[in-house]
From TrEMBL:
This is Flagellar P-ring protein. The keyword Signal applies. Residues 1-22 form the signal peptide. Assembles around the rod to form the L-ring and probably protects the motor/basal body from shearing forces during rotation. Keywords: Bacterial flagellum, Cell projection, Cilium, Flagellum, Periplasm, Signal. Belongs to the FlgI family. NCBIfam families: PRK05303.1. The basal body constitutes a major portion of the flagellar organelle and consists of four rings (L,P,S, and M) mounted on a central rod. The gene is flgI. It is found in: Bacterial flagellum basal body. The lineage of its organism: Bacteria, Pseudomonadati, Pseudomonadota, Alphaproteobacteria, Rhodobacterales. Its main location: other. InterPro entries: Flag_FlgI. HAMAP family: FlgI.
């Protein structure tokens, strides 16, 4: 808890300046170029070589099925055979095919158990084809799984740290098919903002036109800017992207407050403002104590010991924040700094912010995670 409070106070201290000047950001960090995208891949395979931590074939019949198919493709006939190995596990293999990836290149893949395997530590993924959404095979994965956890088990206890049933294979898949996309034939570039905003889109349009000087960029909406490559005077679309993506603009951000109730973390932007509002906060504590009393019979007397229940209950109201008025135009960072100076806990701060938002005095997007 101490580390969480430390992080929280550090984040709050970064927001103490109510008016912070925006910093320039490269266009490549704000937009995506239409057509330049990655593609998700998925495959179903088998991990072997586990130290008795694989699937129980009685509970995962699909593991036995894929193992039988692999052995038959290798020329081993196992039809009608009864085998129950504990060193194999059925897994899903996922990866991402980058834009402009070429055949022969290698990509990282993630391996995740789908049966009742306890651990993939030390296992080896057998050759697994990876398919895209169109059903075509674009890569083949194989290699040693690097799991991110530790598992130990004894006769009467078992301890697990991390997630040993999932792991990665760095450069574990080789690309076999390329995505058909001829970037050189484009006559217009479409830039899609990752966070649509009219002001940011207008600034991107202006800076591109100032750089090119021929009114090549046009803002279509809050999330799209088109660039006419014929007006850029650049020989190829790739060169046009190079000339555009490193230009800097000052993005406009929405006022936003993000809170994480589990850790008590509060993150806010510098543009968050409050209207005039009054705040009062206090805590109620309910205390119940059990103090049973044992009553025994007198010496040499007949009888049994009797337990008499005794319960003490009470409600205490701890001192909180009295009725305080927040003037209009105050920044949220100033309010948080004041609450922090009063010793208000992070969770109480979150409750106060929720109430201020419900009252309509917090002018920002309020996100609760």
């Amino acid at each position: 808890m101490t580390s969480i409070r430390t992080i929280l106070f550090a984040l709050i201290s970064l927001c103490l300046v109510s008016t912070a000047s925006a910093q320039s950001v490269r266009i490549k960090d704000l937009v995506e170029v239409d057509g330049v995208r990655s593609n998700d891949l998925v495959g179903y395979g088998l991990v072997v070589g586990l130290n008795g931590t694989g699937d129980g074939l009685r509970n995962a019949p699909f593991t036995e099925e894929i193992m039988t198919n692999i052995l038959e493709r290798l020329g081993v006939n196992v039809t009608g055979e009864q085998f129950r190995p504990r060193n194999v596990a059925a897994v899903f293999v996922t990866g991402r095919l980058p834009a402009f990836a070429r055949a022969g290149s290698q990509i990282d893949v993630t391996v995740s158990a789908i049966g009742d395997a306890k651990s993939l530590l030390g296992g080896t993924l057998i050759m697994t084809p990876l398919n895209a959404a169109d059903g075509e095979i674009y890569a083949v994965a194989q290699g040693t799984v690097i799991a991110g956890g530790v598992e130990a088990e004894g006769e009467g206890a078992r301890v697990v740290q991390g997630v040993p049933t999932a792991g990665v294979i760095p450069s574990g898949a080789r690309i076999e098919r390329e995505v058909e996309f001829d970037f050189t034939q484009l006559s217009t570039l479409r830039l899609a903002l990752r966070e649509p905003d009219f002001t940011t889109a207008a600034r991107i349009e202006d800076v591109i036109n100032r750089r090119v000087g021929r009114q090549a960029a046009t803002m279509l909406d809050a999330g799209t800017i088109t660039v006419d490559l014929r007006r850029t005077g650049v020989a190829s679309p790739a060169r046009a992207v190079v000339a555009i993506e490193n230009l800097s603009v000052e993005p406009e951000r929405r006022a936003r407050v993000v809170v994480d109730q589990r850790s008590g973390t509060i993150v806010m932007g510098s543009d968050v403002r409050l209207s005039r509002v009054a705040v009062s906060q206090g805590n109620l504590t309910l205390r119940i104590e059990e103090a049973p009393l044992a009553i025994q019979p007198n010496p040499f007397a007949e009888g049994e010991t009797v337990i008499v229940p005794r319960t003490g209950a009470g409600i205490e109201e701890e001192p909180g924040i009295g009725l305080a008025e927040v003037p209009g135009g105050t920044s949220l960072s100033e309010v948080i700094a004041g609450l922090n100076a009063l010793g208000v806990s992070p969770r109480d701060m979150i409750d106060i912010l929720k109430s201020i938002k419900a009252a309509g005095a917090l002018h920002a997007e309020f996100l609760v995670m």
